[in-house]
Amino acid sequence: MVSPLFQCLTLSAVRFIASVPRVENSVFVFVHKLNRTSLSSDALTINSQILAANSPVKSLFTEGDVFVPMTRNARICNNCRWPTSGSLVQVPYTVSASFSSTEMNVINSAINGFHLSTCIRFVPYKDQTNYISIVKKDGCWSLVGLTGGSQEISLGVGCIQNGIIQHEIIHALGFWHEQSRSDRNIYVKINYENIQTGLEGNFQQLETNNLNVPYDYSSVMHYGPKDFSKNGGDTITPLNPSATIGQRIGMSENDILKINKLYSCGAQKRSILGGSM
Ligand SMILES: [Zn+2]
């Protein structure tokens, strides 16, 4: 069973990020042990892993891992795309020196996945106005879309996995969770009776631009079936009984397609998961 989630923020993200308390590793270890008493590690979905990692700072987020500044309407993402330069979209970024070489390899591999599949190019920061700062704070979290200036993606303890890193980066590129889509009720049933009391807001349906891409059960941005469950029962049930949700491998073909459509990328490139587009 995953940890609870949260209300929208009441202060600016900048101040929140600056004030995130340090949490000792032992707390995280406890959280992970707690999860594994009710759900095997193999069964942990990408979102449940994110929620577990974020548990000590859970009150800072909406939808588990998304910072929402009060200074803008985060539900509307009209001007949150990173700018296109020629046929590519350059996203300047820095990575904290606090990551180990092993962690850096995983981060670089996850980033390279975007280079192989999309027109997004993460480039070293060189005094650009807007850039992503990948940091090692408490939990896994990101803002949604380009927010202006320096914006952080946190990859804390429990977050250094390809799927989680790509999940947070996709938030920063402008996407919310898949089950928030405007058409989600055609594809999934939300079981409110199983959601932890007070956390129903994490299952909001949003007005989203779906880019004519089909609803994607296999999206790395999709919640798992038991996320936010209070009783072990499923909180989200795919209406297609053969569908599974909450994969943690990495970007799906439709995740890639959506990025390429949002950013008007050229010819589609091969999928990270090995399939053709
Ligand atoms: Zn997320």
UniProtKB/TrEMBL annotation:
Record's cofactor remark: Binds 1 zinc ion per subunit.
Protein name, as recorded: Metalloendopeptidase
All residue ranges annotated as the Peptidase M12A domain in the record: 73-266
Compartments, as annotated in UniProt: Zymogen granule
A GO cellular component entry from the record: zymogen granule
Cofactors demanded by this protein: Zn(2+)
Gene Ontology molecular functions: metalloendopeptidase activity; zinc ion binding
Upper taxonomic lineage: Eukaryota, Metazoa, Chordata, Craniata, Vertebrata
